[in-house]
Amino acid sequence: MRYYLIAGEPSGDLHGSNLIRGLKTADPEAEFRFWGGDMMAEAGGSENLRKHYRETSFFGIVQVLKNLGTIRRQMKECQSDVAAYRPDVLILIDYPGFNMKMARWAKEHGIRTYYYIAPKVWAWREWRVKSIRKYVDRLFIIFPFEQEYFSSKGIMPVFEGNPLVDAIEKRRGELPSGEEFRRRNGLDSRPIIALLAGSRRGEIRDNLPLMALLSRKFPDHQFVVAGVPWIERELYDQYMAGSDIRYVCDQTYETLSVAEAAVVTSGTATLETALLGIPEVVVYRTLWFQVKLQPYVLNVKWVSLVNLNLRREAVAEIIQSDLDITRAERELRAIIKGGEKRGRMLADFEELGRIIGRKGVADRFARRMTAFLKEDLKKQ
Q1: What does the pLDDT look like over 276-312, one tens digit per residue?
Q2: How far is CA 257 from the centre of its chain?
Q3: DSSP state of 191
């Protein structure tokens, strides 16, 4: 069978690559074409990569507005390539701004569409639910709580676990010891607090200054920021100035695995940290009016994926507009060794692991997709 996949971000490239491997096992005759990145090219063949996500990733309203013409051209290019390839199914991976438009186009042109990693409509832009119901043939979700949500909206989703489990398990055996990590990065012997300040410039600008202030309250610990490779070090240095924070690049899992605790911005990183068993505090700085509007804009009670999946506040969420570190300091002290909340949080993370599901996620999703596809093709 012929599969066309579209991913527009690094995380989609990772999950898309694992899904391709699963599809090749479930369907030995599988043929692929895709928009994605290096990992998908490695899994599905570099000759089948039609567009790299480096050319399609535009973050934030300003970048999107500046590149509207490029985005429109890329949309038409993608549509033409899908039409020429004539896949048995179009698999859309997250990336809702682009992929929801592709879902509508595919429906109008009679192309079967599966959506893998659903848009987070339960948090914002709930109006997209109607489009999912109308244009997506099968919805594959990665969070347990989404089953009830989408079912209540008249959509019967498929849940087989979270692909982060596979990504973490694949890396776990390769992670360095604390001694090796310190030697490799020129760190001293103090316990490490990992800092995950975000993957976008705006997030780093807003969150790293608060983390720098917080680090000064813990001289017996070593704060290490895990930088992302697509953002230059100079940006980090600008906001770490005057602090003792150390910088490492493209070593997020390595940094977390040797950390005593972590301070994390909201997003997927909150779930990754928990699945690695590292106690965390979630901080997110934004504009004052956005803090005030949060209860009216978001449809959920929490912002971290840990709390959303456990359906209770297991990790502290500190959403603020200023640089007051009072609560962040208190919450971090409570989860480092000897802290009163550390044991409870680690137990919560074990429960989270059971809820999220066991490894082999991508393979299970692939088997379900191929089974659905064979069933659909028989009906034609």
Answers
A1: 999 999 998 764 334 444 443 445 576 889 999 999 9
A2: 18
A3: P
In 3D, which of 15, 271, 350 has the Cα closest to residue 166?
Answer: 15
Looking at this protein, which amino acid is placed at residue 44? G
The CA-atom distances, in angstroms, between 60 and each of 3, 289, 295 are: 30, 18, 21
Quote helix, strand, coil % in the chain, to nearest 5: 50, 15, 35
pLDDT tens for 207-257 read 999 999 999 999 999 999 999 988 899 999 999 988 999 999 999 999 999
Q: Give the CA count within 13 Å in the CB-facing half-sphere of 254.
A: 21
Classify 123 as helix, strand or coil: coil
8 A C-beta contact, residue 44 and residue 6: no
Structure tokens at 141: 């979700």
* Secondary element (H or E) of residue 379: none
How many angstroms separate the CA atoms of 253 and 376, rounded? 40
Q: How far is it, in rounded angstroms, from Cα 225 to Cα 215?
A: 11
For residue 356, count CB atoms less than 10 angstroms from its CB and return exposed for 0-12, middle for 13-18, buried for 19 or more. buried
